[in-house]
Design brief:
heterodimer, A: about 900 residues, alpha/beta, Rossmann fold, Isoleucyl-tRNA Synthetase, Domain 1, B: about 170 residues, mainly alpha, three-stranded antiparallel beta sheet, tRNA binding (chain A), protein biosynthesis (chain A), nucleotide-binding (chain A)
Amino acid sequence: MRLFVSDGAPGNLPVLAAACRAGARDKLLISTVGPEECVVPFLTRPKLPALKLDSGHYLFSSSAICRYFFLLSGWEQDDLTNQWLEWETTELQPVLSVALYNLVVRGKKGEDVLSPVRKALIHIDHSLSRRSCPFLAGDSESLADIVLWGALYPLLQDPTYLPDELAALQTWFRTLSVQEPCQQAAESVLKKQGALALRVYLQKQPQPSVPLERPVSNEPEEDELSAHTLSEEEIAMAVTAWEQGLDALPPVRPRQDPVLPVAGERNVFITSALPYVNNVPHLGNIIGCVLSADVFARYSRLRQWNTLYLSGTDEYGTATETKAMDEGLTPQQICDKYHAIHASIYRWFNISFDFFGRTTTPLQTTITQDIFQRLLSRGFLLKDTVEQLRCERCSRFLADRFVEGICPFCGYEEARGDQCDKCGKLINAIELKKPQCKICRESPVVKSSQHLFLDLPKLENRLEEWLSRTLAGSDWTPNARFITRSWLRDGLKPRCITRDLKWGTPVPLEGFQDKVFYVWFDATIGYMSITANYTDQWERWWKNPEQVELYQFMAKDNVPFHSVVFPCSALGAEDNYTLVSHLIATEYLNYEDGKFSKSRGVGVFGDMAQNTGIPSDIWRFYLLYVRPENQDSSFSWSDLMLKNNSELLNNLGNFVNRAGMFVCKFFGGCVPKMTLTPDDQRLLAHVTLELRLYHQLLEKVRIRDALRCFLTISRHGNQYIQVNEPWKRIKGNEADRLRAGTVTGVAVNMAALLSIMIQPYMPTVSTTIQTQLQLPPAACAVLPTDFPCLLPAGHQIGIVSPLFQKLENDQIESLRKRFGGGQLEDSLELKAKVSKAEDPTELANPEQIKLLTDAVTKQGNVVRELKAQKADKAQVAAEVAKLLELKQQLALAEGKPPEPSKGKKKK
Amino acid sequence: MAAAEDLTLLEKLLGLRRGNKYSAQGERQIPVLQTNNGPSLTGSATIVAHLVKQANKEHLLGNTAEEKALVQQWLEYKVTQIDGHSNKDDIRSILKDLNSYLEDKVYFAGNNFTVADVLLYYGLHRFIVDLTFQEKEKYINMSRWFSHIQHYPGIRQHLSSVVFIKNRLYTNTH
């Protein structure tokens, strides 16, 4: 038989290893052909490797070829091997080819390579560890192992892509890699070049398309609904917990001021990345740190853990100086202005900081300089000279963005000091021809300047030791682990910690008086100084690693500063600092299909969210629903509308409202007597199960997944009401009326439980429900692990009203237009047209727009109400005309052509 | 859930008494079979082999090493190339390849009828019913095979019988 191969075809690996392992190697005649040669006569597309049998038949599937070799050696087929081989072709190959293509052809690294295959790797790892067997389909290595090993080898031979947490996979892979047949195959195919040996072949292949994966969403998966079967014990326990009622609740801990760690308690210290002060945060910034941390902080308080949540604005650095120059203010004024903007945005989003501080405080200087002195005296700082441009007239060194000149590559005249806008090449500022100071237009001179460096290589061992202690069993997110590991793998280099700037923490050292600390050195120290501004006993949080559990929230770009750089400073300073226990990093949130961009006006920014008329809880809910937990996700207007209308309005809101309404309407606002049937008991057990899952997930800070639990409970609730029809039974005989009472009582208790569970996500809605139900304060502040009867028979509830409003298509469309995104080009063009018009209606100021928007909303409600009341047609028409008129005014004020009213008429 | 329907048809053909229940997993609705003894099985090709063994008709999986490997290769082909594909161009190129393959063969694994023929018949049926006579004539070898298989006892079940014309109508196409 003849085996056709092409150099660098990934399929060669398993095929050669299998041939060797099954003793078929000697019977093979190997021909090497070009990657595009059609060896198999009946296939239109080239397929390699391929095996031509003596009978004239062809095997063109790598796994069928491997299987054939094993069959020849007398091996018998079995279900488990079949299953692995099928999984390999249908599940692993599609994602693996994307990963390899990204790595080899597109030259990508890190997450771009790992994230497509992560799920598949985890699947193998789990199967191995679950069976507690070293091989995939038996006690010794066999066909399944060879085929999967061969597929994965080009990727996993680089340990970067073999994550430590997949210990079982690691062991399996290493065991196989040292086997003779595998070693031989690896050498002959990869020729010691690693995955790059596949390059020439893969370049000739069509680019693999990412397998259809649903966009990140939180819809329940089908399997999950196929109910977990409840055991008798689970049901009995749920009933016992229910009967204990309010007595079972742990006492509420009074909130101290200031919050300080308490010995013997769980002391949860939460920080969110310090937002940089020079800009207004967008939705992606908000979900990435402050909002995610807020959910966890609120949850932590509901668990009665001793919780402190802090953040603040990061204010020093060049960017602030530039912004100050742009706006004609001093850096301090800029910081004051933007700090207030940040604080007000977070207040609107209901972020429950115990303290929101800032980095430009005297304590920041004290603490930074102290850490600096400690590092200096312990020999962890180096001095070195750096060549930089200096403007003599302004008497300062120029940061890259303060220099302009002629691009040394393309001759473009207005190239910036860091990059040329024309050719896009990166430039080292001192290479610019005819450089000019951007401020005074003087030509700067090259001067050398002394700087201080943090000697990271010298601290590497301590860091490794700390990480290995910390990471095991902690809740660091996978991306945080990955980024940290890849920094360590590339080796740490000394990092410059000083800058020739004015706006920063001064360096307290002879010869460095006119320098300040570089922001990344002192920004992370900001967490300490902000704590110190909150309480003079700040060291009880920051020098107390035994008692304090530190959770730090951030987007993934901030990981290295929190996992490598800052820990090195703290370890080197040797003052028993509290270091991060759980580093929670998100991926990125995109806007519609692109990025948020302040300069292009694309996306929703914190301050604008307030002017959309959509309540902050709805924003919070949607952002948390699409939280980029494992991969990037997108904000989408239509999805926001859908989730509001389906999950909040129709599911959660509908259930809570109906439960309350029944109590008011049928039982005079008094919770009726409940006699539980087996069906009710099973429902309690289901709710308990979801509640427990909610706890498990939030303890691991899986915020997006936990959100699903309360939606599931309210779905159960809706179903329960639908099946039991209390509104019919209340009109029936004695037994029916009793049943109506029980169903109403259980439902309203579920609503009460939900009001506590949603508190971390939608605090305002939570309070509204609790007021409507008159839930006792003791119950509002504690989330139990089981489901007790919170509103016993006889409890009087308050006035019930709807919780959510429907979002209408028109409203969402106009918001989408207002915030750019997909239609950016259109709206820019339109704006240009409008402003060029002969008699331009002056674009109105924001207040006017707001007034008009409010008027439109109001008039819209009037029309809706009239329609709902089936009012006289002429009257409706008159109000509609008013509405259209208002809309037209609004559109003009916003500089948009009036909306065509076609859509309306169709209805 | 085309894949699971094909499995139910196969069960009937094999004369397995009790209809198995299949659940579907993930985006591609991969069938999962819960077996009485032991863990569940995932994936249609895997379940096919399992059912054939359960019915004691192992000859349908092929008799020699070569036949066995060919049967598995074509089951894999069905799962990866045919199931879940509905793009006209893809289907045309698949039919072209299969037609060319069947030029000198009676069955997919060579000279014996196997489960590969059965599953490819089930997988292709929904496309073949829509072909015009002209197309059927264009893929003449494939049509001959298909017509042959659909007349095997017990295979077709509720599926519609596809009409092929023995005499050539469009001689000029060749």
